[in-house]
Structure prediction request, 253 residues.
Amino acid sequence: MGHHQLTQTHREILASLIAGNLSIRRIAGILGYAPSSISRELKRNSGKDGKYQADMAQRKAVWRNTKDKKASRRTPELVAYVQEKLRERWSPEQIAGRLRLQAACLNLPLISFKTIYRWIQKDSDSSKVRPFKGYGKYLRLKRPGKVFSRRTKSAVRYLPDLPDIDDRPGANIYGHWECDLIHGHRHSGYILTAVERKSGFLMAAFCRTRNVECVSSCLKELFSCVPARYRHTLTYDRGKEFFGFRQVDEALQ
Prediction:
């Protein structure tokens, strides 16, 4: 407000001056603020009963400032990045995990996967045109159930007995992982990602090719360092590169 924010001390003085029945213009002159700034402070930070108390006003101001900082994270660059990854069928967990690894290089703020879900939900519920309105269609469905999976694109290319992603377990406990394979630029290789669904923790490994043997080997190596108590189930992309899921599952038992 004005040229700088009111401090706790300013608010205590303001409360005393209000109690002394001084006019807003007189108070503004004493504190060195514009009358409109004092009026705005009283309107925003007074109690429901209309009384102005310094401690309550300070708490309200701090809460509002924190809320504004969180809102400022939703920059146009970050929105564009999240939109792009969602269209590429990345999950919010994967997007948040990648940001943790590369936020500095990408010059983007850090956000949690829960924030991405919240953006999509809030924008989808809005009657106005919003950045993430309609992006719910890119989210993978979540229902409790079996282990390895994702929705199928073509029945000919995929194993008929590979469980669907709709049957994957929920994210109520640690140890349920979602795996995917990301294509490198101009076929320079592949990045195998594994995201722990409850925490959003991400592991990644480089695969030279996308054949079954290479991907299966990378999976075994990636999860060999994960304690068994945090390795309950794996959910796979339904691509043919994961056709070795049975061998991987057996090796990790």
